[in-house]
Design goal:
Blueprint (H helix, E strand, L loop, with lengths): L17 H9 L1 H6 L14 E7 L2 E5 L2 E4 L5 E2 L4 E4 L4 E6 L4 E4 L4 E3 L12 E14 L8 E5 L4 E4 L3 E6 L5 E7 L1 E5 L6 E5 L2 E5 L9 E2 L2 H9 L5
Parallel strand pairs: 9-10
Antiparallel strand pairs: 1-4, 1-6, 2-3, 2-5, 5-8, 6-7, 7-9, 8-9, 9-12, 10-11, 11-14, 12-13, 13-16, 14-15, 16-17
C-alpha cells in the first residue's frame, strides 16, 4: 500500500530520498499484486475494437495496409496508425481503453488474445501519443508500454505516453501509479498522479516533476476527441 504525502505544486524536480526510491521500486511487485485479478475461469479471450474514429486511420496487418473504420476489430500483432489531426479510441472487452492522438503508430503486440492470468500485455508506441486507462479488475499480470527510449509498467491506472519524432519519450500519470524506466532497466522512477518524466532519445532520464497546468492541458488535449 502506498501512502501519498503532502505534494509541492511547483514544476521543480523532486528529490525523493534514497529510502523512498528504494522502497518504491522494490515494492512495485507488491503493488501489482494488490490489484484484484479476475479468476482464470471468469476471463474470456481479450478482444478489442475501434469504438470511435475521428479523421483517418489505417491498420497494418500481415504486410497489408487496411483502412480503419469505426467498429473494426483489432487483431493480434496489428499496428494502428492515425492520420494528421485524427483521434482513435479503442475499447476492449476487459475494460481497457486506449486513446490515440494524431500521427501515432501503436503496435498492439500482445494486447489482443488470451485473457489468461499469466498473460503479460505489451504495447509498443513507435511515435505519437497514447492514453491508456485500465480497469480496476485486471485480466493480466503485467501491462507495459514500450517506446524507442523508455518503458512504462503499470497497475490499474490512467496514464499517457508520448514519443517525439527523434525518439524522446514523455510519460504523464493522470491517475494511479507508474514505474518509468529506461529500456535496459538500469534507471527507474516511481510516478504518482500528476507526475511526469522525460527520457531523451538515447534513454537519458530526467528528474520526476509535477507537470504544470499548461503542459498537462496540452497533453490531455492531444488525445481528447475533437
Amino acid at each position: 500500500m502506498y501512502v501519498r504525502l503532502h505534494r509541492r505544486h511547483s514544476t521543480e524536480p523532486r528529490r525523493p530520498s534514497r529510502l523512498r526510491r528504494v522502497l518504491a521500486l522494490a515494492g512495485l511487485a507488491a503493488a501489482f499484486a494488490a490489484v484484484p485479478l479476475a479468476s482464470a475461469e471468469a476471463q474470456a479471450p481479450r478482444s478489442c475494437g475501434i469504438a470511435r474514429l475521428q479523421g483517418e486511420a489505417a491498420i497494418e496487418r500481415g504486410g497489408q495496409l487496411l483502412i480503419a473504420t469505426q467498429g473494426a476489430v483489432i487483431g493480434a500483432q496489428d499496428t494502428l496508425a492515425s492520420g494528421p489531426d485524427s483521434r482513435v479510441e479503442i475499447r476492449c472487452n476487459d475494460g481497457t481503453r486506449l486513446n490515440l492522438g494524431a500521427d501515432t503508430r501503436l503496435e498492439m503486440a500482445t494486447l489482443v488474445g488470451s485473457g489468461a492470468a499469466a498473460q503479460n500485455v505489451v504495447l509498443r508506441l513507435l511515435n505519437g501519443i497514447v492514453r491508456v486507462a485500465l480497469p480496476a479488475v485486471r485480466s493480466w499480470r503485467r501491462f507495459e508500454v514500450q517506446t524507442p527510449s523508455a518503458v512504462a509498467s503499470v497497475r490499474a491506472t490512467d496514464w499517457i505516453v508520448q514519443v517525439e519524432r527523434d525518439g524522446a519519450t514523455a510519460i504523464f500519470v493522470v491517475e494511479g501509479q507508474v514505474l518509468a524506466a529506461d529500456l535496459p532497466g538500469s534507471k527507474g522512477a516511481f510516478l504518482l498522479a500528476g507526475d511526469g518524466i522525460d527520457f531523451s532519445a538515447d534513454g537519458a532520464m530526467a528528474a520526476t516533476v509535477r507537470w504544470g497546468p499548461p503542459r498537462v492541458q496540452r497533453t490531455l488535449a492531444a488525445v481528447m476527441p475533437r
